[in-house]
Write a structure and sequence with these properties.
This protein is mainly alpha-helical. Helices cover about 80% and strands about 0% of the residues.
Length: about 200
């Protein structure tokens, strides 16, 4: 049985009352997936407009939706392979849209490179997991998952009135994303070392 991390325990405790309520409605998990993505687009528009505080709140709301769709699917036995593909695809698009929205406000080469590295790092974390799981192996290891990246970005936006807070958030996303990608790659090497 898989061990539950502290962050997974918090997510479970936050979502279970909402999931029980949603399970009584006709709302489908894929509708929540799309809803979370649309909320992310609103957050991206707010970021592009320089409304960081409100954008930070909206990013957190979108992140909450992202926790709900899979939980609702499992709770109501509506898990489908397509639902997993849709969720994963829109998660990648959501991260890209949020980070690219920052390019409208960030104009220096350093900031552009940082955003590019954040995109690559976050995609690598997800890609390595997907590639390993195609082999029929588990790959949920890693310090810094998508939920962590969303929270750090949201905190950077919420604290953007403090000098360099958003810049520091992006540096953290870059560093810990590449660190986590390394953890997952090492894990994959250990699992396949006998090949």
């Amino acid at each position: 049985m898989k061990a539950i991390t502290f962050s997974e325990s918090i997510a479970h405790n936050l979502t279970i009352p909402v999931i029980r309520l949603l399970a009584r409605t006709s709302i489908r998990p894929n509708a929540l997936t799309w809803g979370g993505f649309l909320i992310t687009l609103v957050a991206a528009a707010l970021i592009a407009a320089g409304q960081y505080l409100i954008a930070g709140i909206v990013v957190l709301v979108a992140g909450f939706f992202d926790m709900l769709d899979g939980a609702l699917a499992r709770h109501t036995s509506q898990v489908t392979r397509f639902g997993g593909v849709l969720d994963s695809t829109l998660d990648r698009l959501a991260e890209a849209v949020l980070l690219l929205a920052l390019l409208v406000q960030f104009r220096s080469v350093t900031e552009g490179v940082l955003i590019g590295l954040a995109l690559v790092g976050s995609f690598m974390v997800s890609y390595i997991r997907a590639r390993v799981e195609v082999l029929g192996l588990q790959c949920t290891v890693g310090l810094f998952t998508r939920a962590h990246r969303v929270i750090v970005l949201a905190l950077g936006l919420l604290l953007s009135h403090i000098d360099y807070a958003l810049f520091i958030a992006l540096v953290m996303i870059v560093f810990f994303s590449f660190f986590t990608a390394g953890q997952r790659l090492f894990h994959a090497w250990r699992l396949t070392a006998s090949d």
